[in-house]
Amino acid sequence: MGITPSHLSASTTCPFCGARLLLHESSDFCCLNGRISLPTMPVPPELLSIYNDEIKVANGGEVVYLFRTQGAIYHKIAIIVGGEEAGQLNGRDIVVQSNSSHLMNVSDTAGYYDPLQYPLLLPCGTYGRDVNTQNGVALRTKVTCRDYYSFMLQIRDGRDNLLLRGCRLLQQYAVDIFLKMETQKFRWVRNNQSKIRAEMYNGLQDSFEAGINISGHLGRRIILLYSIVGCPRDMSERFQDAMRVVGVSGRPDLFLTMTCNPSRDEIRDLLLPGQLPQATIHTFKGNDDKLNSSDVYNQIVKAEIPLQSDQPELYTSVLKHMIHGPCGTINPRSPCMQKGKCKRHFTKPFVPYTVQANDCYPLYQRRDMGQVPIGRV
């Protein structure tokens, strides 16, 4: 019994900007259906060869001065990101030392912030987005932070993009961009409380009428829009939606985490090095399809290594991609180890048959199948 092969849907190309679009992605995602047009970044062939050959950049020669700390390569720049309150968003404290040894502050909204912070990704000093960045089309309108970076981070056939070859540096760059967008969003909310009619929500008058006049309980309150992910209004709305779904459909039957295999041809053709898509899915089944017995669980969930003689392909895939560890006393430095124990509770005990519990995860069947060679297959 083998594995039924499946194939990803073919990607398409945006007719306006040439970006590669995966299934369910539209041209509104990359260039707002042609309304965004920005110049491409220059790609020095020497630096491109370094990325292609995975050569580590070190100090010396005529390269830009770099230094390594805590395993990461940095330019001569210091950034401190603090947990500021919404009413005190004065920007990050970014200090740059010039060639003349003078220190100068740089705003994270300045266009030259990006090449100063990421010289390996922007070696030609290409400006990032600032408040005056304009669209390249005829309308010459200003471009938002999200639209700018969404356009610049797209995969376009025939055009090399150093940003997408940065691997972990790209991840840091993406987090920095996200922080920049969120900070600007909070600044707008702080400065436009009258436009969102915050006086209808702040409740200060109610506090006075209730007799709460302690200075620690009063102050300038910033009302956040419900569209800001993680704010109290957003979390309350999500909670109510989740409770409504559970009230109508019952509790979730399956919790699936799916990670694409980067060794597949379809993945290798579409992704650049360092990219790996992942999805987490909650599945609700109808009343007639509920998982209500151990036999039904065994038809859907397999928690033991299959027999090589019965399912050779599945056996090879499980050993290659789905084995946890080694950890415990064999490898106490494993990332899963906390206080001398595996936080994922491996190794798990053998279970002769699946046991269904009332209010917790079932104990899946995990029989002792003998010794299995663990390692790359």
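Above is the first protein from milestone M3; the second protein from the same milestone is given next.
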Amino acid sequence: MAHQSGIGVSDKLTARFRDAHSEPVRVVQAQIVGESVELTTTVPQQGGFIDDLAQVPAMLSSTEPSYLLVRLDSDKWLFATYVPDAAPVRSKMLYAATKATVAKALGDSYFAEDMFGTTPSDFSPEGYRLYKAHEDSSAPLTERELEMERIRDLESHAASAPSIDSRRSHVASAQYPLDPNAEAALRDFARGTINFVLLAIDAASEVVVASRAESLQSHAELAACIPKDLPSYVLYWFDSSTTLFIYSCPTASSVRNRMVYSTFRHGLIVTATQMGINVHIRLELDDPQEITPDWLEEEVRSRAQPEPGAAAAASATKPKFKRPMPPNRRPRTCAPGT
């Protein structure tokens, strides 16, 4: 089973996890190797769940992400994703984009808890207790969580009251949340440390993921970075003062994908704006190969806002419209000597 990133789950991992249900296995560790998620190692049960967690931090590298499937003290499992801060950006994006694929391939129903961490200690007994305390707390919702609650309410309302006005409101407001790596990529983009972010929708987990985040060396590289058969969103610094939002929707993509990406396009721009990214120019196209340096230059030049005062100056120098002469009337001429 493969995600749009092309990463699948190996048969060996699938078989080992299936066998682990009937064996005294506490942890199954997996990592992305090449084009698939492979079994790394397993750890047997030695005590209770909390006690056995003490073995997990020693399994983790300071630079390499991994998935940890940890049996709870029941027939259910914890799906943990470990992505260290020192991991390469591409690895972070691949693990975020492939997580839903792994869970679905192994069986979503087996996983009762979902945990994310960036340091080995996050998966220690104490780290797990902190995670549970946070999950079980009755702390007030953050602004982001409140916004997501409002979005879910809007979606529910739109489903139950399918009037034209409610559908328009729903489409204009619809947003999928960003996964952690997509958020990190947009923060880097807002700071100007990278100039290109390619975003995609992971429909299975209903999140926006960053497929690529890097700095391109020239406009000529842009077209090759955008999928030719799948819709995508692009944020790109055209220059130090102009940000482009490109919505690419190839004609070869499925009708469903085209509808989903069209629906959530505006919401993504709203999210980017809230993160400090001022989108200056929005472009739409159905073939990424249209993007050439000359085409970009022309689009930016034709859509760029004039400098303050430039419009007034242009108006002052523009010839005034000359009223056409009434029919059958000769132009007036001055009499000789006047």
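Note on the second protein: The chain has three domains: 8-133, 148-173, 180-304.
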